[in-house]
Design a protein that fits this description.
Length: 192
């Protein structure tokens, strides 16, 4: 597996270099979601206010940038699961993470065309990210089951599939998805 599509942490960057990398990733994610495969690296450089050399130092190819944007979103989702597990009661942690997942699916859907158009083989990229997401969901569900607040009648992977299905497009789709997350949570919680 190449370094560009591994889920491992790259070498530690200087603070200014990390800020530049994060800025490029943020702008690239927004533009890929907004424009799809039509966004150019020149657009990203212009919007970031950074030089083209800075972009290429961090992301030597367009493919490397697209993979990094996608993996950055997956890693944020996994980190959110850990943070929520430490800071929220089990069911609330799961509910909040599910909302994060819905937002991720919406971003991923917008980027899917770009990923497919620019990366020849997304199979390994998706397999690694799916495992990271599944692990995050398992951790949160198992925590809820251990607390006695969630009943064991649904496989966490089925819950992920249900979540993927609630993401829509158009006006009020985000509000609708949040309501559907609440319905899914109500369906798996034990009523006391």
């Amino acid at each position: 597996m190449s370094e560009s599509n591994s889920l491992s942490t790259p070498r530690k960057l200087r603070a200014d270099a990390q800020r530049n990398r994060d800025l490029i990733l943020t702008i690239a994610r927004e533009e890929f979601a907004r424009q799809g495969a039509n966004v150019t690296l020149e657009d990203i450089v212009r919007l970031s206010g950074l030089g083209v050399g800075t972009l290429y130092r961090h992301f030597p190819t367009r493919e490397a940038l697209i993979e990094a944007v996608y993996l950055s979103e997956v890693e944020k989702l996994a980190a959110a699961a850990r943070e929520l597990a430490e800071s929220e009661p089990p069911v609330e942690a799961l509910r909040q993470w599910m909302v994060c997942f819905v937002e991720f699916v919406a971003t991923k859907s917008a980027m899917k065309e770009t990923l497919s158009a620019m990366i020849a083989d997304t199979k390994e990229l998706y397999a690694n990210s799916t495992e990271l997401i599944r692990s995050a969901m398992n951790t949160l569900v198992e925590r809820g089951v251990a607390s006695g607040e969630i009943q064991v009648v649904i496989d966490p992977l089925d819950l992920l599939r249900a979540l993927s299905g609630v993401v829509g497009s158009g006006p009020n789709s985000e509000e609708s998805a949040r309501r559907l997350v609440d319905i899914l949570i109500a369906g798996i919680c034990i009523r006391k």
